[in-house]
Each structure stands twice: as C-alpha cells, then as structure tokens.
Amino acid sequence: MKRTLLFAAMIVSGLAYGQKTSDLHKTDLDKLSAKSGEAIDLKDGSSVQGRKHSTISNGQLDKSREDVYSFVQIGSSYYDLQTNASVGRRILLHDDGTISTVWTYSPDASAGWPDRGTGSNYYDGSAWGSSPSARNENLRTGWPSIVELADGGITTFAHVSSDGGFVRATTTKGSGTWTSQTPVLQGTSGVPIWNRSASSGDTVHLVSNYWSDGGAVPDFIKDGITNPMTYSRSFDGGVTWEDELIFLPGYDSNFYLNGGGDNYAIDVEGSTVAIVTGGRTRDVALWKSEDNGANWTKSVIMPFVYPAFEWGSRIIPQDSNYTTSDGSLDVLIDDAGNCHVVTGMSGIYDEDTTDELMSIPNYFSFYHWSENSPTWKVCGSPIDMDEAPDPTSGANWTFSDETMASLGSDGQPPAGLAYAARYGATSISTHPSMSKDKDGNIFITYDAPIELILHDYQANLRDINVVYSTDGGDTWSDAQNATQWRTKEAVFGSQARMADDHIHFIFQADDFPGTHLQNNGNTGLHPNDEVGIYYAAIPTAEIIAGNLGANTLSAKKQQDPKVFVVSQNYPNPFEGMTKVTIYNRAGAEMSLNVTDLLGKNVMTEELGYKSAGNHEIIIDGSSLNAGIYFYTLSAGEHKVTRKMKVVK
C-alpha cells in the first residue's frame, strides 16, 4: 500500500499504540545503553537503547521552587506544532550581533487558525522588539524558514497548505515591516509545502515535500514516487527560480516510493551545499554540492535494509533490530567543508502484513555522523536524573508510560493511561539543531523528557538539552539541561548556525506536554492554549565547563553566581534608557552600579533576585550628564563591568 511516510508514520503509530498496546511495553533486555560517543553497529543495533517503561512513583513535580531558569519571551502562538520532525533554521545571528527569528504563529484559537502565518522578532543588540500581534504575510501560511541575502536584507519562505507554494516575504533588517508577494514554487500540480531554506549571498536553496490529506488534496505522484521531496534553487533571493521542484540525483523509485514532510535538513557554507533526508523506512542520504548546487554527489550514510520499501509488503520480525532514522535530522558544514549529520534513532517491525499496523518501538538516543568521522556514534540521550536504573529493565531512565504513548485511532490514550504525550512518530530524544563556533566546537540542542519531572497528566515534561564536541565529532560530552523549566514543556529548539561566545536558540514552552494538534484527542486532553516562544543565549564557556548540569532538582553542588553579558548595552551611545541582556549561571540577588571616568559612584540600584538564565536589564541614564560611564552588574561576589556613553 502506498502512502506518504509522514501520514503513515503518524497514523500507523497511533494505531499501533491504540490496538497493539502490548507492543508499547515490550522491551529487549539484550539492548544495552550506549555511552556518548560510542559507535554502533547499524546491522544488529546492539547498542541502541531499548527498555521497559514503568510509571514513576518516586518523583513529583515541585511547583514551589523558584530557582528555575528564566529566558526572554519574544512571542507566542496558539498554533503549537512547529514541525513534524526536523526543526530547521528559524534564527539568524547576524555579523553585528543582532538576531532575527521566525516561527509559526496564530494570534488566537479560532477553528482552523485562519490567521496563521509567520511570527517574527528582532534583537537589536540589547533588547527584543514587542511580541508580534499579527502575521507577516497577507494570507494563511506556516512553517517559515529565514535567510539573509547579500545586501543584508531578510527573506522568509512560508508554505501555503491550501494550494501549495511558498510566500516570499522580505524586510530590511530590524524594520519590522514585511512585504509579501504571490506564492512562488507552486508547481503545475500537487501541493508542495514544508520548506527548509538556506542561502549564500543571493543564492537560495530550498528543499520541500508534496503532501496530501487523502481527500481534498490528492496524492501527487512523479516518476513512481508518491508525494516526493524536491529541491529548488534561485539566484536572485527567491524572486525567480533556476531549478524548480526538481529531484536530486539518485532520488528515484529504486530507493524511494514516497517522501516525508519535514524529514530533511539543509545547510550552506559558501559554495558548499548539503541536504540530508531520512525516515523510518528510508535510507539516511546526504547530497553534497561544492559548486553552489550545480552538481551533486549522493552518499547513503545509513542504509535501510529494504530499498523502496512499501508499507505492508513484508514481514519484519520484532527481533530484527533494524535501526532507522526517526526523520528528525540536522546537517552542518564545518569550516573544513565536512558535513555533520545528526538524527533521532528509531526502529520498526511488522509481524502481520494483513493489517495497516506497523509497530514503532521507542529508542532514546540520537546519533552523529560526519565525513571526517564516518561512523554513527551516540551523541545525546535523556539525562539520568536519579542515577538509578529502571527497577524492571535495568536501563538508564525511568519514564512514565504516558510519556511514550501516542493516541489510538479512537482519539484516546492506550487503555489504562491518563494521557499520550509522544510527538508524532519521533523518537524519545528528538528535534536536534546544530551550531558551530570560531574554534570549531560543535553544539547540538535537542529535547527529551526529564526523569522525575511529571506533569499532572503523569507525563514527563521535556526540556532542551545540549551536548558539544571539541574534536570534530569524534567524541561527545554528556548532556546538560539548557532550559530546566520544570513547570513547562520546552521543545522545538532551533539554533543559529553560528555561535559567538554564546549559543543562541529559540524554543517553544507550553503548560501541557505534547501539542494540541497531536495530543488533544477527542476528549480535549490538550487544550488549544497559548504557548510562548522564548530566546536563550547560553555562554559556550559555561557549556564546555559543564556548569549547566542536569537539572536544579538533582544538582550536586551549589553553583557560584556569575553573570555573563550577552552583548554590549544598546543603544550605545544613548539618551534616556539603554538595555543589556545577561546570562546568570545561578540565581542570585543582583545590583547595578554606575561610575564616571574618575571612579565616582553616580548610581546604585538593587535589581532584586534574578534566577539562572537570561534577563534584560534596563539602565536609566536620564539623570546622568553627557559623558563616558562604567556600569557594573554584580551577582554574589562576581562582577562584570562594561563602558557606556550618555549623550544629551
């Protein structure tokens, strides 16, 4: 039976959990937990995590504690599904330290979200703009990607799911005024959506996938592939297209019978372009071009055992251990031109081909591969909070069954469960996003459930973790918790591809685990509530030193308070007010002190308790004479001083 993998994976996983509940709870006790950086054998999957899931009884959500992390809210949305798999690049760190961001936005919970579109915000070097109250485009869109062109202008592409194609919207950096045009890349038939874009100068590279809903939007079939992935290229920032919705070399029906929405990622470094795709029943394949997309080389870097696999076409035994990608991937080109790929790991089995069910067991880690180190290695997993093995399986982590489950075909959680919090058909550690710094260090963020942190629905809440490599991906650090929210679900982290002294990322925070679109069911389990879009800037020195730790609930030592200035105060010079964004290593009482050039104190202000994380500090210079001053921010015994200029 032919269908798109996205549709099949999401629906089939729901059917499997709804009708074959026993599969959800099966464990393979022969599968051992792989350590970070340990290579795996993809043929037998011997080091892929497998475990029995048991309900947490020794950890409850502590809502009374206040030493949680804080971040800067830059927007919101009532549409809470930012991706089906791969996150994509939705944040740009510009050369001057300013930042542009986008996300899928809806101002209200109206049926069908008719005003859905691109939400955006801009960081001017010290402060963020106001949270948007309207979409950027002049019609309903979703899934924006953002690029910077040669003149510094900003362009976004967001899909039109009703008719296909992508609205191209442009702005002058920081202006907040967007112009949009008739959708581009609509094609002659079919509905292409779910784009991922990247740019080098005015050349834009865009990968997307056709979709169908089995009804009003029919399947699109080209060269034997149903709803395929395609590539497009523009030399003028997306106004016109040299290559329009074409197949990459080697993307043919010998290997693929269907595409997969959001099951791909793209990166560009100069004239080098990299595109990676994968999925539960497909190879992980890397296409690389070193001449700006004119010619491509395809490499199958994680082969699926059955090329051109068709659902229900063969028995796949449960003990076959066929490891696959979960379709949530990222790709990054390093300074030497080598491609790095990460993906959530998964598996499938199907012991009854007479029905439409395919079981998708839970896997916990995700994996890294690179051209300079072409062996798949574990690079991230959930954090072991209690340092105690699961009492039943002996594996590293204990998560509630609600955390693992998807809704059944009846729109209900599996029998005996209060909820189903799984994100579509992705794996337990998923939604990876990569960045690099000037020293060649690589950072990966991803979201994963946290042991001991339970929502009232008995599902473990998720946080965004971070790992790093200082040797080009040969070895990876242990995971640290980058958000430590505790009372909210933090997911869909998207990093700026370049880090400076900080990694920069945005993410979505929700009062409920899962999403309204995937986990609400027919009984209103996950309301269509407003979610927050947040920005985080975390010092790379703190990450590499291991100072983030696991989570404040399990901290073994009290961190010394230390404040890091994310950027110089802005505006500077200024008249009246200026702002500075900081990162606190740990919660502490803070103060501001301002002195003149002679060292005379001219202003002191107690800022009160500031939790760990990011904060915007306002400096009121309206009472100061014109001149040069020094402002000092203090947290505990630590102080940081910067120079500012007041004008009148």
What features would you highlight for this structure?
disordered N terminus; globular; mainly beta; 648 residues; 36 strands; four-stranded antiparallel β-sheet
The percentage of residues in β strands lies in 35-45%
* Cα shape: globular
What is the number of beta strands?
Answer: 36
- Counting H and I runs of at least 4 residues, what is the number of helices? 5
Biggest sheet character = 4 strands, antiparallel
What strand order characterises the main sheet? 1-29-28-27
The average pLDDT value, as a whole number, equals 87
Radius of gyration: 24 Å
Low-pLDDT stretches = 1-36, 38-66
**What structural class results from the helix and strand content?**
mainly beta
Compile the SSE list and pairings.
Blueprint lengths: L4 H15 L1 H5 L46 E6 L13 E3 L5 E7 L11 E7 L18 E7 L5 E6 L6 E6 L7 E2 L11 E9 L2 E8 L10 E2 L2 E2 L2 E6 L8 E4 L17 E6 L2 E8 L2 E8 L7 E6 L20 E11 L5 E9 L18 E5 L2 E8 L20 H4 L25 E7 L5 E13 L5 E10 L10 E2 L7 E7 L6 E9 L5 H4 L11 E9 H5 L18 E3 L11 E8 L3 E9 L4 E10 L2 E8 L6 E9 L2 E9 L2
Antiparallel strand pairs: 1-29, 2-3, 3-4, 5-6, 6-7, 7-8, 9-10, 10-13, 11-12, 13-14, 15-16, 16-17, 17-18, 19-20, 20-21, 21-22, 23-24, 24-25, 25-26, 27-28, 28-29, 30-31, 31-34, 32-33, 32-35, 35-36
Characterization of the model:
The protein starts with a helix and ends with a strand. It is built from 5 helices and 36 strands. The strands form 10 sheets. Strands 1-29-28-27 form a 4-stranded antiparallel β-sheet. The chain is 5% helix and 38% strand. The protein is globular.
